[in-house]
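ARCHIVE CARD
CATEGORY: sequence design from structure
SOURCE FIELD: tokenized fold
FIELD CONTENT:
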């Protein structure tokens, strides 16, 4: 019996969430009295994972896996889980993982719990704590199947060093499909993505028009942040749909979320409230966002944001 974690990477480098899932996998393995094995696809330095407790790292480097394909990736993870006799498979909470985890669950006839935030509260029955109702509540969920899939929510368990002397070996997987049925057609490079970002700078209809996003992009660049927006902003075509965050957009679980000219409608807050620190800049002191925020500035974005950029640049 073992715990298998999928340590995801971009352009050969591990994502921060890879270290989170390995740290989490180590904890689960300790609770089960087993060991943690990490699986990587196209990552450059597998040994980086030893630091967080991965005793064994399986590396897959098939060129057919250069582009993400949920079915193929799920097939590779399932094959590795079977080969390693893994009872628990752990993935992160990225959009890619949300696609592939249910397929892994079907392949392994396993129960799947997404949005898990902490180590199992019990191993018998196997019970995990998850975010529920748009992150407004927690639920304790029993995974009753022999095999279990866990989707770990970002920024919930943290990264914990637990150095081990690990080994690394290549894993030869049989690819599931002859013809690719799904394809990722958008890839953003050279910019922080919302899913990976520690800081997200988000703006809403208060910005008046797309021509005013220069200062938002500049603030994001100074902070090393991703840019995001409210739904109406992307509906109006001011910003790409990939930036829309909220209940019907991308979820955000950043360390810092800065909302500029966003009112704080419940559907917006539902998608971003897993962020640790929330800051709002809004002219209207009655805007609902002030109730949800940790810090607020009542002020005009066109005055506040340039000053903020100036101060941060001088920092
Ligand atoms: P507004 O509500 O128009 O707010 C603009 C804010 O800017 C105001 O508070 C105003 O005081 C402030 N402002 C104006 N001028 C300035 C200035 N110069 N400086 C600073 N502040 C200023 N919305 C989402 O965002 N994400 C979702 O996923 C989402 N899903 C939805 C799903 C459903 C089923 C429905 C019905 C709605 C959904 N919405 C979603 C829409 C949501 O209800 C709100 O309409 C939307 O979030 C409002 O966007 P906004 O805050 O940018 O605009």
């Amino acid at each position: 019996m073992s715990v298998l974690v999928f340590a995801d990477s971009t352009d050969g480098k591990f994502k921060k969430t890879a270290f989170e899932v390995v740290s989490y996998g180590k904890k689960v393995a300790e609770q089960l009295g087993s060991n943690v094995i990490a699986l990587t696809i196209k990552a450059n330095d597998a040994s980086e994972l030893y630091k967080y407790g991965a005793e064994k790292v399986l590396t897959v480097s098939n060129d057919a896996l250069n582009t993400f394909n949920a079915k193929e990736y799920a097939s590779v993870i399932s094959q590795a889980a079977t080969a390693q006799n893994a009872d628990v498979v752990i993935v992160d909470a990225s959009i890619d993982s949300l696609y592939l985890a249910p397929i892994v669950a079907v392949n392994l006839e396993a129960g799947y719990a997404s949005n898990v935030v902490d180590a199992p509260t019990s191993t018998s029955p196997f019970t995990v704590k998850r975010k529920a109702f748009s992150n407004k509540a927690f639920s304790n969920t029993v995974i009753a199947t022999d095999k279990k899939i866990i989707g770990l929510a970002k920024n919930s368990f943290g990264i914990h060093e637990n150095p081990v002397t690990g080994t690394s070996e290549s894993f030869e997987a049989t690819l599931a499909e002859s013809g690719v049925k799904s394809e990722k057609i958008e890839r953003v490079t050279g910019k922080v993505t919302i899913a990976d970002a520690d800081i997200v700078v988000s703006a809403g209809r208060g910005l008046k028009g797309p021509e005013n996003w220069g200062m938002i992009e500049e603030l994001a660049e100074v902070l090393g942040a991703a840019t995001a927006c409210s739904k109406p902003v992307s509906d109006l075509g001011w910003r790409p749909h990939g930036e829309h965050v909220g209940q019907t957009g991308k979820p955000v679980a950043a360390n810092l979320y800065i909302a500029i000219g966003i009112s704080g409608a419940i559907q917006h807050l539902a998608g971003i409230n897993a962020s640790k620190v929330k800051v709002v800049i809004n002219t209207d002191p009655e805007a609902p966002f002030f109730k949800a925020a940790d810090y607020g500035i009542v002020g005009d974005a066109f005055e506040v944001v340039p000053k903020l950029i100036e101060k941060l640049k001088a920092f």
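CARD ANNOTATION: Residues 16-32 form the longest helix (17 residues). The chain has a mean pLDDT of 92.
SHELF: design records, drawer C
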